[in-house]
């Protein structure tokens, strides 16, 4: 299948796959929620570190919340925050397993069902693969760099350089592992074998320049969209929070701005769900098509021997 056919087929499956998009929405919602919080915290840290020259410490946000809102509200928000943090870190891996499995079923014209089973049974291997290259995530790297600058002292900048170097290497490795998740979900094979198969497929078909460029374009498009959401969502919420705080009590202004942020993230996640499902479906179809091809390191000797030559060998 040609690259443009894969792109077209993936978009068709994305538009008609309502069940797949539901999982894509949940994936995008919790991922965007986590990224928005990380961006907000890192922005506050950068402002306090570079502008105020007095970096904030752990518990600073909780302290501000405790002194400016009713205590029952503060405790509820902190418990909700910690609960959501766990869900945001774990659930996207479950959703990815469901998206890959349902997309593969849709492509093979099977009944698109069993998303919850696919999510649960593929969670641990997908989570393990992600954690192996945990520093390939830009948000994780930025968080660790900020911790290094805050508590590393003189060694902080050196630690940041090391972390950024590891991020670059991890990103390159992640490119060769691009089919690992599909191999785990579709073929039900172990992590090590899935990684080897992914590397082999990428190396075998690396010469398909147009093919890879189109796929990379999909990734870049998703990254740009995520970065826009990452910047716009917290900025809008912060702007409204400051606006409301200028003429409202802190409790009311924080409540309104938080609810507004949830609504914005909800609609942003709805749009990102299409992009997430489309991106993942492209890789799923690509993996299934490449698996149909003959492996380039296997030489079929038997088919190369003619009947006459076989008789001569037997004689």
Description:
By secondary structure, the protein is mainly α. The chain is 82% helix and 0% strand. Helix 2 (18-51) runs parallel beside helix 7 (138-151) and helix 4 (71-107) packs parallel to helix 12. The protein is globular and about 80 Å long. The mean pLDDT is 79.
Average pLDDT number: 79
**Share in helix:** over 70%
How many strands appear in the DSSP assignment?
Answer: 0
Secondary-structure element sequence?
HHHHHHHHHHHHHH
Distinctive features:
single chain; 315 residues; mainly alpha
Short description:
The chain is mainly α. Helix content is 82%, strand content 0%.
How are the SSEs placed, and which strands pair?
Blueprint: H1 3-16, H2 18-51, H3 60-68, H4 71-107, H5 115-121, H6 123-132, H7 138-151, H8 156-176, H9 180-187, H10 191-204, H11 209-245, H12 250-290, H13 301-304, H14 307-314
Helix pairs in contact: 1-12, 2-4, 2-7, 2-11, 2-12, 3-4, 4-5, 4-6, 4-9, 4-12, 7-8, 9-10, 11-12
């Amino acid at each position: 299948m040609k690259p443009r056919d894969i792109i077209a087929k993936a978009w068709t499956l994305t538009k008609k796959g309502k069940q797949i998009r539901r999982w894509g929405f949940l994936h995008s919602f919790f991922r965007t929620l986590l990224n928005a919080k990380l961006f907000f915290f890192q922005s506050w840290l950068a402002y306090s570190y570079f502008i105020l020259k007095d970096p904030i410490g752990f518990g600073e946000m909780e302290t501000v919340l405790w002194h400016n809102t009713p205590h029952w509200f503060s405790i509820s928000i902190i418990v909700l925050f910690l609960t959501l943090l766990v869900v945001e870190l774990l659930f996207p891996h479950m959703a990815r397993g469901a998206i890959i499995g349902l997309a593969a079923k849709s492509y093979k014209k099977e009944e698109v069902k069993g998303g919850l089973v696919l999510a649960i049974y593929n969670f641990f291997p997908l989570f393990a693969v992600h954690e192996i290259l945990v520093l390939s995530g830009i948000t994780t790297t930025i968080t660790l760099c900020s911790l290094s600058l805050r508590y590393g002292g003189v060694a902080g900048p050196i630690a940041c350089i090391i972390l950024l170097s590891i991020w670059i290497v991890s990103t390159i490795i992640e490119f060769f592992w691009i089919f690992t998740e599909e191999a785990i979900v579709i073929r039900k094979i172990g992590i090590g074998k899935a990684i080897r198969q992914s590397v082999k497929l990428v190396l075998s078909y690396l010469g398909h320049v147009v093919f890879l460029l189109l796929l990379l374009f999909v990734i870049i498009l998703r990254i740009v969209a995520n970065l826009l959401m990452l910047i716009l969502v917290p900025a809008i919420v912060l702007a409204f929070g400051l606006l409301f705080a200028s003429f409202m009590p802190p409790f009311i202004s924080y409540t309104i701005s938080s609810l507004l942020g949830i609504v914005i993230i909800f609609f942003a996640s709805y749009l990102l769900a299409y992009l997430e499902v489309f991106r993942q479906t492209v890789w799923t179809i690509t993996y299934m098509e490449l698996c149909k091809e003959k492996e380039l390191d296997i030489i079929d000797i038997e088919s190369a021997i003619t009947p006459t030559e076989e008789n001569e060998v037997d004689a």
